[in-house]
Amino acid sequence: METSLVLQNLLSPxxxxxxxxxxxxxxxxxxxxxxxxxxxxxxxxxxxxxFKGGVELLHSGLGPQVxxxxxxxxxxxxxxxxxxxxVLRRQLDTFNAAAIAATYGSISAVTFITAESxxxxxxxxxxxxxxxxxxxxxxxxxxxxxxxxKLASSAAAEQPREGIRWGSLLHEAFLNSSVLLxxxxxxxxxxxxxxxxxxxxxxxxxxxxxxYGALSFFLLDMGIVAAQRVGDLxxxxxxxxxxxxxxxLFNAGVGLAVSWMLGLPQGDALLFMVLSASASYIAVxxxxxxxxxxxxxxxxxxTALGVTFPxxxxxxxxxxxxxxxxxxxxx
Length: 331
Description:
By secondary structure, the chain is mostly helical. 80% of the residues lie in helices and 0% in strands.
């Protein structure tokens, strides 16, 4: 891995602000972000990336490579929970194993956005259609995770009497706020680019110039939250901490192999790897809390947010970039 890549990532403002949030908690500072602001910034980031992705998707069109990449991303989202469950089931009960497996099948939009910023720093181009893959990778993981709970617990006679509320599950999988805002912004961006191009310039200050600062502010809050979750890792134990470090590396390797088979350029390959290697700490935990109350949130949230997220942000992205450059030639 090139030292310059690591330094570029470590010294980027979003990562430095993430570190500042961690330090604030470790030194006992009273720094905190008022509760509504992180939610507002997360909605802003999803809107901006969805809108820009819709514009780029219109320009790139729905060619064979775009469709095959999106389908591959959805298959990854369904496949990762299956083999993750087999690993986790060796140490955990059905409910916790399925909840964590679903968490690692889904994605982290903030990790994806940070990877996009990293590509911007390195001057490497990428296609906007990867945002569509991002939006469509959350739902399959949730559904597969709940199917695992139903099938495995039925076989072991652990199934709760009331069963799984499939209506609520499907509603959460396809209409949760992250998926709805991303897909909606993607469609709006495409419509504006196609029928009202003058609107793109009016949106530019909001979706362009403000984006990097908002991402830095949001990662400051994520650093605070991640550091506050460190205590929960004691409950997770060495097995889960090891899983949270090694599974992203394995998934990134699978993502790299798929990217090579699809013929993706380097920038898109990095984003595909990041999508494969990241874990959800918003949408999936919300769905698991509602439909699998037997699973402990301290396990699936602390591993995703306390270990995998900072690993990907600080070390993973430049490491995955180095792997991409070894396997996929520059165009």
